[in-house]
Amino acid sequence: MDETSPDSPQQVRPFFSPLRASLRRLLFFGSVVLVNLAATYWLYDLFSRAGMHRAHLLLLVVFFILNGLLVLGSFHALFGAWDIVWGRKRAVRITKLAEEAGDAPLARRYAVVMPVYNEDCHRFCARIEAIHRSIEATGHLRSFDFFILSDTRDLDLWVLEETAWTNLCRKLGGFGRIYYRRRRKNENRKAGNIGDFVRTWGGGYEGMVVLDADSLMDGGDILKMTRVMEAYPNLGILQTPPRLIRGSSVFTRLQQFAMRLYGPLFIRGLNWWQLGGGSYWGHNALIRVKPFSDFCELPDLPGREPFGGKILSHDFVEAALMVSQGWEVWLAWDIEGTYEEAPPTLIDHLKRDRRWCQGNLQHLWLIFARKLPLTVRAHLFMGIMAYLGSPLWFLFLIFGTWVAWDRAGSELSNLPYDETLVGRWLEIGGIEQSLILTGFIFLLLFLPKILAVTGALLVPRVRRSFGGACPLIAGTLLETVISMLLAPCVMAAHTFMVLSIVLGRAVGWGSQNREADGTGWREALAVHATPTVIGIGWAVLAWNISPVFAAWMSPILLGLILCIPVSVWTSRARYGTALAKRRILATPEELDPPAVLKLADLAKASLDPALDASAPGRHGVIAAVVDPYVNGVHVSLLEPADLSSENEALVERCLTEGPGALSKDEMIELLYLAPGMLMLHRAVWLRPEEGIHAVWTQAVESYRRRIDTTGGEDLA
Q1: 10 Å Cβ neighbour count for 139?
Q2: Which residues are CB-contacts of 252 (< 8 A; sequence separation ≥ 6)?
Q3: Are 257 and 475 in contact, with CB atoms under 8 Å apart?
């Protein structure tokens, strides 16, 4: 680190006044607690009117937690709206500080790092190309290097990544600035991948922009972030709020519309109280490398997975470690050029949630750890409750059904008891009191939507960016209805996730599906059969209790019963396209694509027929052996090694019996052996056909067919 950089953040006064931050947090969380206590007492008073049931105490406990989460979310939107309307000038941080820093060359160097795992190499290379060109347009490309950090386990994809990276460097002049590395052992998943980069190359950089394989960021905004990091030495992590893009299915269009319309309220509300004690979301963030290296080495949790072992949701913990050491973590709410993609179907979304669920529940070990600031505990708590909230909601519904069943089965009429505190003070009956509580709950549920839509309709620029008033209102109504249908299905899925984790079933590490090719009926039936059966059985039970109770439960029961057709319908890209033609669920990025998104759509630098490992007959590993150019690229990325007699025997087996005769570990060993790959390449071209396996002769023959087709003009 530069000599002018502080060794610890305490050398510089905090950017946010500690007194001001404490008062804001007291006001925010105090308001949440008071409102929740009032609502819980209101429900207790209502139960007292009807006569306390043995399940009422359980209902009150669960209601207190669930309603607290609901109030917490709604108040984020409420305080965010307040900050947007009255605190705009005081709330601006990143863009304003970047302007104050001037336009001089950056004093330090920065890395743009993209960890990948079994991804489409041309898609993530297109994003790297777009970011590269976007930063180049700012005139500050010299201050940045780019790293593709591969943990890919698919051997064919490994070779495709190498050729795509080589083409990318050739077209952009990026050799010595765009780097590719594949880890031989992918220990500790993404956290281990980033940690390996920090230990190996981190010393050469002041900060690193951490991306996901589906991330995209505008170069101008990256420059602003680095200027702020240079200007403020206490800043450890600068997290941006990514916007969802490229949604083609109904499900992804719903997600990106909701996040784009309602998200700014929650982001501003979150920023209002967290200030310098923010969180890190794992990607689309700028991290100062030195303190990250010093303090963010993650320990193994006690015990085995799923609750012990390696920490899955590492990002929250890394931010917690930063803040606990005095470094500040900011939320760059006003940085707009930050994007990511979402899973295309509900089932893909739930698969990703399974991994996040286990990771967040691991934080139960950490939330009560010593010396953690309030903001850190609050972020860990919200992450845990994002998944524990579903089984609690499920329990609340079960307890409510129990009360209704017990009262219906007793065949006793309830004698109203009006001598309660609320009844005496407000002089209202039990029916009015229950209606007021119901209205309050619905107000909390829909307040963020009401505030966001009202604000968008009142601001012409925002209204036009969503396609106009009519598409905006239609999209909001559609999103509300479908979200209500999806919520019970997600509740059931999260409940089963938590149960499976409690029972000790750890999650694997799979690549994410980023294509919207739809969910089949058979897959939907396999995944959603249990919630559907529960919904049907529950509906029969509710009707037997009372038609009124069944009507009261109908939003939940319909969501469970219809989860299979809703899951299939929302996965279809053709329905999403039909909505897009009418500008329903449209977002500003869809109607007026930003420059960096256009660059990514046009990016083709990783594609070149002269260096291609995807040709029919010589794909992936086969190309790495047979194709002269692909073999040369692959061998050039390997470390020097000697060829032992055991290695020679391995080469001979692969040559005569084909790659299918080798185990995956043996094939990996061979692919990492430079002299072995060169020996294989020479042999498949020089040996007679009778001495090698047919897979090699067919690959060589594909070149002859190409020569015959082109008249010998293009050997490649």
Answers
A1: 10
A2: 244, 246, 341, 342, 343, 344, 516, 576
A3: yes
Give the angle subtended at the CA of 589 by the CAs of 585 and 590, to the nearest 5°: 50
Q: Strand, helix or coil at 618?
A: strand
Round to whole Å and give the CA distance between 350 and 321: 29
The encoded tokens of residue 633 equal 């690229």
d(C-alpha 228, C-alpha 213), whole Å: 25
SS3 278: coil
CA distance 423 to 433: 8
In angstroms, the CA 408 to CA 416 distance is 16
Indicate whether 706 pLDDT > 60: no
- Cβ neighbours of residue 10 closer than 8 Å, sequence gap 6 or more: 326
Q: Tell how far CA 526 is from the center of its chain.
A: 25
pLDDT tier at 510, thresholds 50, 70, 90: low
Alpha carbon of residue 469 to chain centroid: 30
Q: How many CA within 13 A on the CB side of residue 509?
A: 18
Distance in angstroms (rounded) separating the CA atoms of residues 420 and 413: 19
474's tokens: 């239609």
- Quote the pLDDT of residue 313: 86
What is the number of residues in the chain? 716
| 119 close to 153: Cβ distance less than 8 angstroms | no
Angle at Cα 77 formed by Cα 75 and Cα 80, nearest 5°?
105
By the 10 Å C-beta count (0-12 exposed, 13-18 middle, 19+ buried), 114 is classed as buried
d(CA 132, CA 713): 34
Tens of pLDDT, residue by residue over 288-344, are 999 999 999 888 888 787 778 888 888 999 999 999 999 999 999 999 999 999 999
Take residue 561 and report the two structure tokens written for it: 């019963």
